Amino acid sequence: MLEQIERYLDGELEPALHAEVHAHLAGCGPCSSHSEFQRRLKELLREKCGCDEVPPGLLERVRAVFSEPGTG
Ligand SMILES: [Zn+2]
Question: 4 C-alpha to center of ligand 1: Å?
């Protein structure tokens, strides 16, 4: 599910799956907070580096710093 949420946030899911994840987030607290965390993280990184593409290594390091809340 969490992997799908990442792709959902990136807009990579096909429409049917996108709607499915969207519905799940509406009714699932942990997944909802996870998606909110991911979204803020991406926004933050975008501001910091001024680019859309975040280097994978950097993302992992920032995640470690922020200590991600429990998984859904
Ligand atoms: Zn969930």
Answer: 11
